[in-house]
Amino acid sequence: MIETLNVPPSVGLTDEQFYQLCIANEPWKLELTEEGELIIMSPTGGESGVRNSDINFQVCLWNRQTKLGKVFDSSTEFKLPTGAYRCPDAAWVKLARWEALTPDQRKRFPPICPDFIIELRSETDSLDKLRKKMRDYQKNGLILGWLIDPQTPLVEIYRLGQEVEILNFSIDNPPQLSGEDILPGFILDLTPILVV
Q1: Which of 131, 124, 187 is nearest to 154 (CA)?
Q2: pLDDT band at 11 (very low <50, low <70, confident <90, very high)
Q3: CATH superfamily, with its number, for domain 46-194
Q4: Which of 1, 24, 65, 89 is the most buried (most CB within 10 A)?
Q5: So where are the chain's domains?
């Protein structure tokens, strides 16, 4: 379940106020768009949890071998340059960019747009809202992002400064997604994500 509340500009949540709001409402995952929409998301269900775990496992395994950056799970909130706060299902940041943050910035909601993200559509997610979220990441400097929709099934590939590439596929023959130059040598196997 996802609910959206409008936060009037006159209220103007500060970074600290938004952080405290998230802490005070820990069972919920909160996001804030640059337009002032407060998005309230409930915890994920079992199938989405299994899929998210597999995605993070694959990205973590690749990163453990390459040591090129840091991997984040779906509970990590990023403060984007536009002021939006977003939680991708999986995220990766280049090591040099992560190390450029102060220790305090790393402890809270890192003020950085990930270099790579994955959004996985669950049964309660609106595809249009996820597409807007992906465009927001792209606008904030995302280099590569994948929106995976097991229901359709399709994958949308978002690249910095490029049009979205859409891959329709069958569950019996899913594509393998390449990390391209951003995550060299990384291939995401969609089979365990689609067959839960």
Answers
A1: 131
A2: low
A3: tt1808, chain A (3.90.1570.10)
A4: 89
A5: 46-194
Q: How many CB atoms neighbour CB 23 within 10 A?
A: 8
d(CA 158, CA 166): 9
Tokens of 155: 């994958």
Could you give the angle at the alpha carbon of 172 between the alpha carbons of 166 and 175, nearest 5°?
35
Q: Are 113 and 101 in contact (CB under 8 A)?
A: no
pLDDT tens readout for residues 98-120: 999 999 999 999 999 999 999 99
